[in-house]
Design a protein that fits this description.
The protein is an alpha/beta fold and 338 residues long. It contains 9 helices and 12 strands. The strands form 2 sheets. Strands 1-4-3-2-5-6 form a 6-stranded mixed β-sheet. Strands 7, 8, 9, 10, 11 and 12 form a 6-stranded mixed β-sheet that branches. The N and C termini lie far apart (39 Å).
């Protein structure tokens, strides 16, 4: 687990904040378990969103994410479609239950996730000088990362697993970043009926979400209708762990690497020629400000998009954590709760 000296403390997202806001009832904590690192943010009732910590991944964490990104890593997982699937998955479930009974994480993968959650929780509690019992947790969209993994990771970390009203039972970074950039949310979230109407009346938004860190480049072409409704199919989602920023030395020259990045950014649009072009590009990750990456992105967009989209880059490292914190703060007034 990262040591306290590896924690980067962030700042406020509200201008001229002169004192620490009171955190009492109504604040929300958000964690982003992404590639290379994890981040934490806090959203307060007065509208302030504070970025708290960026913690580098421990050894083995990124390798775990890479493996979970592969279709070959998929397996059965609850909820099951039929009794046969339940029976077929029972041996794997028995191993998970046995590990938990002995005080271990449900799986080695769950252990990596839990360690990051524990480290982020410690950073937030140190900042608040108070304990927290829950957090909204967003993740990369990975083929073999399942809701049970997140539930078990929270359980091992002794943190309440929050069930946010998301389409996939997973809180993917595209939704979190969309909210973190200030889109897809009503203004007065405490008025449930009017908030629900406002969000239901929002137009669908085609977005291209790009995450770029030292270990991976991910690209999605998704539809957002409010921050709560994400349509992100597997055939419009790529994760390439061979194109992280640190892959440059392994390429045949730097230009070849950037050409490959450009082609990966283009591919999602080339392979979906009849899909609407993105109106917004959500950039996240700690390498998106690289000048060569910006050139690659501009080339990809100019070749595929007639009307230039809005490109969102502000505080890209923390955008998803900020969105997670904001949606967590709103959860007690969830407009979709029955």
């Amino acid at each position: 687990m990262p040591t306290p000296t590896q924690v980067y403390l962030g700042g406020s997202d509200q201008l001229h904040m002169t004192k620490q806001p009171s955190f009492g009832v109504g604040f929300g904590v958000g964690f982003d378990l992404t590639a290379s690192y994890g981040t934490a943010a806090i959203s307060y009732p007065n509208g302030t969103i504070l970025t708290v910590a960026k913690i580098p991944a421990e050894d083995g964490y990124d390798e775990m994410l890479q493996r979970l990104s592969l279709d070959s890593s998929r397996h059965l997982s609850p909820p099951y479609q039929n009794l046969f699937d339940w029976w077929k998955d029972e041996p794997r479930q028995a191993i998970r239950k046995a590990r938990k009974a002995m005080g271990f994480p449900a799986s080695k993968d769950v252990g990596y996730l839990a360690n990051m959650i524990i480290a982020l929780r410690a950073a937030v509690e140190k900042h608040l000088q108070s304990s927290i019992s829950s957090a909204g947790i967003t993740t990369l969209h990975l083929a073999a990362l399942y809701p049970e993994d997140m539930r078990d990771a929270c359980e091992y970390a002794k943190l309440e697993h929050l069930s946010l009203p998301m389409r996939y039972e997973m809180f993917y970074e595209t939704s979190a970043a969309y909210a973190g950039y200030g889109y897809g949310l009503c203004e007065d979230y405490m008025e449930r009926e009017s908030c629900k109407k406002t969000q239901d009346d929002m137009n669908s938004d085609v977005v291209m979400a790009v995450f770029f860190s030292r270990t991976v480049l991910t690209v999605t072409l998704s539809v957002m209708k409010s921050a709560y409704y994400l349509y992100e199919s597997d055939d419009r989602h790529y994760s390439n762990f061979d194109l992280g920023y640190d892959s440059k030395p392994r390429q045949q020259g730097e230009q070849a690497y950037w050409n490959a990045v450009t082609q990966q950014l283009e591919a999602i649009m080339v392979e979906n020629p009849y899909y609407k072009r993105p109106a917004k590009v959500l950039l996240t990750g700690d390498c998106i400000d690289d000048a060569d990456f910006q050139v690659a992105l501009e080339k990809a967009l100019s070749s595929q998009v007639e009307i230039p989209p809005d490109i969102l880059t502000y505080d890209a490292e923390f955008a998803a954590a900020k969105g997670a914190a904001e949606l967590t703060k709103r959860l007690p007034w969830d407009p979709y709760k029955n």
